[in-house]
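[agent] plan:
  1. take the single chain provided in the ticket
  2. run structure prediction with default settings
  3. attach structure tokens to the ticket
  4. add a short note for the reviewer (M.T.)
[agent] executing step 1
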Amino acid sequence: MFKKIGVLTGGGDAPGLNAVIRAAVRTAIGEFGLRCIGIEDSFEGILGETQLRKLTTKTVSGILPRGGTILGTRNKGSFCKIIDGKMVVPEMPIDEALRNLEQNKIEALIVIGGEGTLAIAEQFHLRGFPVVGVPKTIDNDLSATELTFGFRTAIDIATESLDRLHTTAASHDRVMILEVMGRNSGWIALEAGLAGSADVILIPEIPFSFDSIVKKVYEREKRGSLFTNIVVAEGATEVGKNEIYLDEEELRLGGVGDYVRMKIEDMTGKESRCVVLGHLQRGGSPNAFDRMLGTNFGACAVRALVTGERGKMVALRAGRVVTVPLADAIANVKSVNPDGQLVRTARDIGISFAAPDEEDH
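[agent] step 2 finished; step 3 output follows
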């Protein structure tokens, strides 16, 4: 039986991180009598001069509705590398981290993060250190779980933004473009676009054609709708072209929304505007669903550790929280199926994905 466990958050922040921390601490202390140590600033907190803090039921009191993470996080560590224009799986100095964990008598880890963070957690498991992961990303692109916490809140924010853009677009007869996050997966754009009544949805999984977008704009005008709302995922690409980066050295996606705006305005002569939602999607208080899911994940992660599970990640499947191997969780990115139900539904109700073949229909 463990006496002391560590908890850390890694990668970009997401609504619900504090819910996971709170549930893990309350479960560890109240149910199993364990001591909890918070590791600050992701894995950086166990490298060099350690950054640790004692977590008690008092220190996590009141944090359930708070956005961000009380432990701090990093979406790239001092040990991360970019090789040939691609972020590689970080080669973390595991020996140093394990020494620091041993010196502080931390016997197991709960690691809360997305694909990159959990890939590092897997390295600890391969060295024999007990670890359980918790899936976190607003992008919802981890294949081993149906949902990641933070995603539903991001959808709510993007949907409300589309609702607001709808009214101003209609008032001015404009083309309004909303750029949302999601990296190389289109889940946020797709679900927010459906919920927010977008006319065009551009996602990485379906390369788009400007001729198709323009065709949709003109079709709407013929029906008397002199405005068009477009939601575009930050990783969406024009047919035959690469992603657009705000910072190519750090591989920071962004700018595709303004690119679409300029091209559409040039091709149609219609006044167009772009709103980049950016970090508003990941900030602020989590909604009720993400509080609930984060709480479930945090409690189940502790229970998995205590009952002897190793190298696992908690996951939501068919409404139940289960555990899956970390190796499976990081093996594949979950992308939108271009022939899947949500895409079919969007097309059924008249939403365009601006694929080249749509020009002929």
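[agent] step 4 note for reviewer: Residues 4-150+285-329 form a domain with the Rossmann fold fold (CATH 3.40.50.450).
[agent] ticket updated
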